[in-house]
Amino acid sequence: MNSNFKHIAFKTAKISGIVIASILLLLFLIPLLFPGTVASEVKKIANERLDSKMEFSKSHFSFFTHFPSLTVSLDDLSLTGSAPFKNDTLLKAEQVSFGINIKRLLFDNEVKINELYVSNADINVMVNQKGQANYNIYIAPKDVKKDKNAPEEGTAIRLERIDFKDCHIKYNDRSAKILVDAKGFNYVGKGNLSEDIFDLNTDAKIDKVDFYYDRTAYLRKKELRADLITRINTNALSFILQKNELKINKLPLKFTGLFTILRDGYKINIKAASEDTTVKDLLSVMPPEYLTWLEETKISGKSDLIFTFKGNYNVSKKQKPDLAFNLKVNEGAIDYQNAPAPLTDFQMNVNAIMPSLDMEKLLVNLKTFRFKVGEKDYFTAYLRSKGFAEMDVDASVKGALDLATVDAAIGLSTLELKGLLKTNIQAKGKFSTSKKLFPKTIGGISLRNGWLKTDSYPNPITNITFVANALNKAGTYKDLIIAVAPASFIFEGNPVYVNAALSDFSDLAYNAKIKGELNVGNIYKVFSKKGIDVSGYAKADLSLQGKQSYATNGQYDKLNNKGTIILKNIKATSELFPKAFFIKQGNFRFQNEKMWFEKFYATYGKSDFDINGYLLNTINYFLESRGTLSGNFNMKSKLINVDEFMALEKGENTDRKLEVEYAKEDHPKMSGVVIIPENLDVSLTANADKVEYNGLVFNDLKGKTGISKGNFYLQNAVFNIIDCALVVDASYTDESPTSARFDAHFRAKDFSVQRAYKEIPMFHDMVTAAEKAHGIISVDYKVKGDLDGNMSPIYESLEGGGTLNLRDVKIKGLKLFDGISSKTGQDGLNNPDMKGIEIKSKIDKNLIHLEPFTFSVASFRPTVKGTTSFNGLLDLRMRLGLPPFGIIGFPITITGTHEEPKIKIFSKTGKEILGAVYNEKSNTVVKKEKVK
Length: 932
Fold this sequence. Notes:
Number of strands: 48
Shape: flat
Largest sheet: 44 strands, mixed
Helix content: 10-25%
Structural class: mainly beta
Number of helices: 13
């Protein structure tokens, strides 16, 4: 019996071993049997179904990479995006693997991909301002039948498993002003993805996620976990959120709804809720620098958060979804390290609705906002508003707070506050700057014995007193009265006082007195970080009295503006320029309508400016949001480096226009153009020792220059370049951070043609024959056109004309004349001397059209006319007048290029050059010039 059992056991073990060995052998052999089939099918699918460029270093096949699936793995894979992002990377991964259906491979010899694995990848999703996305790379099969009533299809991907491991995903949607940056993205999605409609089970974890809207951070470095069940319609790429539980740090969120991707946007109907949670969980989504405070503070209370996002998004059709938000907080309390009096009875109930993401339709209803500190201190407010630029307002604010008690209760670790703050303001009515309406208002705000200190600077701001009252009985600008009396504080022993009364805001009547001095660098540190390298000093003694209309109507005798402001070592930035201006000295004197610059010296990078003169109407400029500063100045400078003002150059200024930031991302190698302020109307009599621009050096600038309504101009400005006087009248206007337009008239007499060819790029490109010329010439030329993102002329855009005078020029070694000499057998034609010749020409479409001009050489009288291009194409006609007087002659045509001219004698038939086609709106060359 035992022998029989041993025999059966041995036989079973033997068979099992053979089966296992066979299976293992197959696991090694199958990838070797089908490598050509699998590799070719992967390439075929990529070529047929992807409208992008895919590259990888190597591929390999194995059962063991993602056992038990047979996978084809592509190492170091990169994938570009769809138009207009074809040059940008959409995906760059250490490895991307595709799971293969082994049954179909063995029995049908078909490659069916049913799993996707992506590891250690950078995924960069981009949507431009027009709503065009870089992820539309999938080309749907042509034989798929479409339901006319079905939504427009996007990408249809059919998989059974999607697996992302340790990825970095960045989603930048400029049209919606949304930026999501997710690091440590791990995701596993499973489901019967072979069906048209299936449920996708998802487990996701993100180590750190940032969320920005309109460059404002709403989430930073937050951990996110997700347990989701999503029903997906692959034909329409529609997602139905059935079970979607997220956790942002400690705050739980549940999502339900629908999300459908369309070719030109998306359809969305999503509700997110975090109901019946704690206030502490809600506060856990605060920026990371506040989380330490959160752990040290006793926080209680309940919160409910509901967020909805519903509608279609399509830029071309101007469709945007509706956004709604509701937050409730009840029974809230904050007690920081057992403060003497905790903050209690905190309640808030706020609703906000933004239909079509339109700020002008914004509805805000802050029904309740109140809290208490101790037994006496309280604060309560409500706000109901509709609209934005024209806003219906109903608001009330009441409170009496001891700021020291509030500071202790909340536990502001970097800020110390003291003082008694009282406020009682009611406002109801319509606010509109265009219609000069202001809500009916009564009330005021006061701060007594104020004290402020931060951990950034050792000395506090003390004795802060502020009393302001507002009254408006009729609801118009005309009836609004605001009085600030007094406002004062002391900083480092220096007192500052402000008293002001403002009334009739339709024609603002002002009466203000400002007196005091400040160490600006130190007070900047109070509100900033340690180590800031800004020092500065400001002293003011001003008395301002008048009405806006007195200045605008020229009634200057009714103004009573007087006093002085002194600034030293002040650092200032503008959103238009990459670097900071450093005001070393600024002495300003107010005299009625004028603000005099009596001593003003500033630097910007390497550039320096010594200015004196005046500005007109400065008070109105600061009071009106759309005012224009006008003035007249004398300016001296040792150096003006124009390159430093170009918009995309590097600099310490981080507060730039959004369009500039986008341009820097899109064109990292461009310098950008100089952006001109639109609110200036200022003229300057300039005297600069040196001006540097794009590698050119201009010396001894003298003349009138200025800025008028976004246009920079030069009037009869004289530069010294290549040892000659260059007279310029010009205007310049920026169109975007990477494009500009100019219109200029250049005049220069008696300069070296060789130096101009070598040192002036535009002359080099326009007068290519100057390479072989020596002597003295003059030029008088008008030209206008566009500048590219490096402030260089776009030749295809240029239009103009003028005259070139050859006073005494010798041409030697020019292939064109050498060719004519060879063809005619007259050696005297190859190195002509050209004296007293005037050449008129016009330029457009990248072509230079020469009017007929005649010169004498070796007893011959050649007459030349025709067309050449900036790229060297030739279509010239010559009549070679024979001795003695050139009455008799014969025709010659010159075609080809400057480097290889083709010369025909006794010929009048050339080859017409068709001009380039240029698109002014997009600043792009549609077609290059070419021979017809």
